[in-house]
Task: structure prediction
Amino acid sequence: MTDTQDLDLRKAAILEAVVSEYIGTAQPVGSHHVARAAGINVSSATIRSEMVALEREGYLMQPHTSAGRIPTDKGYRFFVDQLTEPGVLGPAQRQKVSRFFEQVHCEMEEMLERTSSLLSELTSYASVVLPPSHEAAVARSVQLVGLGPRVALLVVVLADGAVEKRSIDLAEEVPEEVLAAASARLHAAAHSRPLGGVTVSAASGDPLVDHVVSLALSALGELASEAHDRVFVGGPSRLAAAFDAVETVSAVLATLEQQLVVVSLLRDVLERGVSVVIGAEHGYQSLASCAVVVAPVSVEGQPSGAVGILGPTRMNYPQALAAARVVGERLGQRIHESFDPAAGAAPAEEHRPRRRARGRR
Amino acid sequence: MTDTQDLDLRKAAILEAVVSEYIGTAQPVGSHHVARAAGINVSSATIRSEMVALEREGYLMQPHTSAGRIPTDKGYRFFVDQLTEPGVLGPAQRQKVSRFFEQVHCEMEEMLERTSSLLSELTSYASVVLPPSHEAAVARSVQLVGLGPRVALLVVVLADGAVEKRSIDLAEEVPEEVLAAASARLHAAAHSRPLGGVTVSAASGDPLVDHVVSLALSALGELASEAHDRVFVGGPSRLAAAFDAVETVSAVLATLEQQLVVVSLLRDVLERGVSVVIGAEHGYQSLASCAVVVAPVSVEGQPSGAVGILGPTRMNYPQALAAARVVGERLGQRIHESFDPAAGAAPAEEHRPRRRARGRR
DNA sequence: TGCTGGCACTCGATTCTACCGAGTGCCAGG
DNA sequence: CCTGGCACTCGGTAGAATCGAGTGCCAGCA
Result:
């Protein structure tokens, strides 16, 4: 198999021209257009023969004879990996991001929700935000609150500010004092422990308290094990604009509704250390006409969440990459700050592209 | 203005036929089709002349000369108000609803989220669920949890099981004990009070405690006043299927993204005691091609939230009305039960404390 | 050898025409 | 007052003609 790395300089230039033009116009690109593009000084005839080669090698394809070429997924892949730097945001967008992160002052959930809106505004594509996982997060507080005669709510505050809750059927009436006692025992046992590893050592005097505690403990266990598969989707309406086939829109939206799919896609991508997934590179049929650009959200160096941009395969990759990285980074900082406002005093250092997108299928 | 009430019996029958047919086929309906419809025993010529009248009176319109008629908003309105009963769900759907509400066992938010999915599955339209307002809800618990050196989280548990939170910048370092003291004072002051009316009477000995308390109180006030304008949208992908113009889809989705608009629309509709809004009857331009079917969610007789179905104006009103009502009612019951499981001793249902693991995937 | 201009050819898109048929409005007769 | 009949309208479809952007190939030139 011909290796991507060594395409002719000229072939690469031609491929780049085709991809750029196609991203802009969504029309198949002919040899004449390429010839006119900057940095290419050969005639259209030469370009045609090169294009034949590029097509043979799988970078381009023709919708039909006597039409121009459009990039294949492989073509986009080469473009992203070899031909393009992450790019920078325009000053207006950069300002928008800064303004956003200065102004935003709210709880995690809402912040993530609004971050996803920001991303989709910046890029005009749909966006997804994967919340920081609090797998390893320790509990700051555990509390039982009575809601009704036989119902209590277990409220857990984690160190990252997230609040998890779960209602518990008590099966019999439990007086306030018992609830309070159980709550105190739980809190003592769970404080500063990771959710999974909470045990309560000694039995108290009261068997009812013990019963409640054990109910709460199992609920706690469930909370810990349950992958918190929420994902925030921003700007789904942009999808309708990005695709023109209404059934494509429908299919993609339907996939987005299944949070699970999106979450595992993002996790997968992150794990492989990749930042762009194009077309069918992931296994999901329904997203075959999409590309996803992902950037990690790191809190104090620990990668813990992700932001992603979801658009058509002919999306503006440099811009999307830039937006995802900047927003991901700023979001990480912002989350960090929210525990220690002083940390936010340090000016955000200028972001420079450290690494090119890597990873192929 | 001709009053809606008194359309000819025959005119009404014709209108009904046109609306039904159009809802089914999305094609303009001609006089022949109407003549063939059940319950109409006049010739197409007669129907034509009646249709002319109906058109003059604003119930029907022609997309162009020599095409059939399609209903206007006014036509739909008459159909909904005079010609149709809410209808009943099919046995399969009814069972789906029952199964859902038996199985669902989770926190408010997730339940609402999943209810909206249920609704959109039942109807194949998009759905919205307006959470029960907890304007008047009293606090069951108020707590301050330290998150970082200068940051605390105010966690409020309301009587309806909702958990509200807000982080507080303390501006200086506050030791755990102070936080605990403040937390205790707040809890005592706020317990069983509506969020708005919390005051702390006497000053404690410690000025730092007082400071923290006052910070927390103002945060509490903000929480109370802030209209909690969240709305759960289900099945946006169904919209893409319901409309065929991609820009309509885009516009409607964009409107749905602005939670605010949807919330005030629903509130408005509820307030007017209406259950169906058709086309431009509400003021929102971007939803002019939609109809909304709304049903209240009452908890113990108190109307406190709403469910809605959002589809094209040519939606299946009887089915949508039935679905909205049933789901709204069951949701209200379910919410009520979640405070007092005994209340849910549904007829012919053995009640066992059941604890279903919500294992996903 | 490799690039170029030229040329014949392909084929989707556009335009034009004809035509079909569903649907209308109108009217005379039962 | 209803009905069948009739002339008319006009969107949608089908086929033919045309256009033009684009291709592959090739001979000739640096």
Remarks:
- The two ends of chain A are 14 Å apart (CA to CA).
